[in-house]
Amino acid sequence: MPAESEFFKSDMILGEIKLMKDREKIREIDEIPEKMVIFTLSGEYYAMPGREMLEIVPTGNICPIPGTPECIRGLMELRGEIESVLDLRMVLGLPAVEKGENYILMAQSGSIRSGVLVDYVEDVADVTQSAIMPAPATLGDETRGYVAGRMDCGDRSVILLDLASIFAKATVA
């Protein structure tokens, strides 16, 4: 038969476990969610932080620029300003598609501002930092450098992209 001190120890351990779980719940409630813009490319879901998104515009007339890297689709005029447009498919190594209905996410990371061509903007969701998991190990080498993590949004698995890395590719390429 266990001694009374052993019962006391187990009660203390169980109490500490309960306290740790309660602290976790408090931390989850206290964590401030960040807006994420969720969009599709080739049927897959991707996201970028909302703080980096300036606006969402339908694809207009994009004028190609000879001699620029493949990932730069061209220039477009937006309310009197000339903006570059980056083809995210080319950066991520995804297959090109025929012209269709696309959208441009006007984005800014640091001092770089550009449009980012996507298939469709699905949602804007609140996501806490603790909900962001490491990038999947199954990602290809070409994509891995542009991924900041993964998250679940409803029943969808969403890849979180790193806009600074994507813009760096366009400026170096």
Description:
The protein has 173 residues and is an alpha+beta fold. It folds into two domains: 1-30; 34-172, CheA-289, Domain 4 (OB fold (Dihydrolipoamide Acetyltransferase, E2P)), CATH 2.40.50. The protein is 27% helix and 40% strand. It is built from four helices and ten strands, in the order αβββββαβββαββα. It has helices at 4-30, 88-92, 141-144, 163-172; strands spanning 34-41, 44-49, 53-58, 72-78, 81-87, 103-109, 112-118, 120-127, 147-153, 156-161. It has a five-stranded mixed β-sheet. A five-stranded mixed β-sheet has the order 3-6-7-5-4. The mean pLDDT is 84.
Question: Top keywords for this entry?
Answer:
alpha+beta, 10 strands, OB fold (Dihydrolipoamide Acetyltransferase, E2P), five-stranded mixed sheet, 27% helix, single chain, elongated, 4 helices, 2 domains
How would you sum up this structure in a few lines?
The chain has helices at 4-30, 88-92, 141-144, 163-172; strands at residues 34-41, 44-49, 53-58, 72-78, 81-87, 103-109, 112-118, 120-127, 147-153, 156-161. The protein has 173 residues and is of the alpha+beta class.
Amino- and carboxy-terminal Cα gap: 73 Å
- CATH fold field value of the largest domain: OB fold (Dihydrolipoamide Acetyltransferase, E2P)
Mean pLDDT across every amino acid position:
84
CATH architecture title of the largest domain = Beta Barrel
Structural class: alpha+beta
Largest sheet: 5 strands, mixed
Proportion of residues in β-strands: 35-45%
